[in-house]
Amino acid sequence: MLRSLKNLARYTIQSTDAEVGGVKDLLFDDASWKVRYVVAGTGSWLSGRRVLLSMAVFGEPHARDRLFPAEVSNSEIASSPSLDTDPPVSRQQEIDLHEHYRWLPYWRSARPKEGEAEAARRDPHLRAMRKVLGYRVHASDGEIGHVDDFIADDEDWTIRYLVVDTTNHWPGGEVLISPDWCEGFDWTSRKAILTVPRHKVKDSPEFRPDQPVNREVEERLYDYYGRPRYWAK
Fold first, then answer.
1. What Rg value do the Cα atoms of the chain yield, rounded?
2. pLDDT 10s digits, 202-225
């Protein structure tokens, strides 16, 4: 199922013991476009401390109760390594975190080899969703809007779309853009650069946040852009 990450950030995390706290942010990998971690708030329970939890421990979000269940205990969370939850997060911090919870690492190598310590000191690919919201979006021939949300597949938490708000540039609303149609991000200038022209985005199918992004919506979008469908690969 495709879900809004901005909406998910309003959920409460449910551990195997009790409610832990709210989803404060989500960290995604800008190379693979996979959400890797939830930044979990703990409220007064741990004096407002924030911790990182791997997406691998989470089950299906419960929309009615706005609960996000996690297969992790409160005692594990309380004794987890202290981390700076704002990116960049170092690979060594990730290793310590995974060893504490006995999670399988999503990366191939384990501890950095000799001579790789500095390269592994920070992982430049992990980005905080809340920091990217509001980034200006540039088509191949000019600015068109800003990033308003991300849509991810809750099967593997791959981000499938950027939600781009275009209302400051022309009448309309929001549109969906696949990360595959992004040339890249300029992190210094806080902008995303697309490979499609302005007129193409302007006339693209409008995104309705009150309606689900289903396969019919996706097929219409990919047909419009004439791009190969990711689900047919």
1. 19
2. 999 999 999 999 999 999 999 999
Strand, helix or coil for residue 20: strand
Phi, psi of 129 (to 5 degrees): -55, -45
- How far lies 143's CA from each of 191, 196, 198, in Å? 9, 11, 8
Give, rounded to a whole angstrom, the gap between the first and last alpha carbons of the chain. 18
DSSP state of 231: G
Give pLDDT tens digits for 128-173: 999 999 999 999 999 999 999 999 999 999 999 999 999 989 877 8
Distance CA 11, CA 24 (A): 9
H/E stretch holding 198 reads helix 198-202
More confident residue, 42 or 88: 42
Global pTM value:
0.89
Supply the DSSP symbol for 56. G
CB of 119 within 8 A of CB of 90?
no
Cα separation, 182 vs 195, in Å, equals 6
By DSSP bridging, strand 158-165 and strand 12-14 are unpaired
* pLDDT number for residue 104: 87
pLDDT band at residue 191 using 50, 70 and 90 as cut-offs: very high
Residue 192 to residue 200: CA distance in whole angstroms: 16
Phi, psi of 102 (to 5 degrees): 60, 40
Identify any residues that bridge with 149 across adjacent strands, giving them in sequence order.
Answer: 163
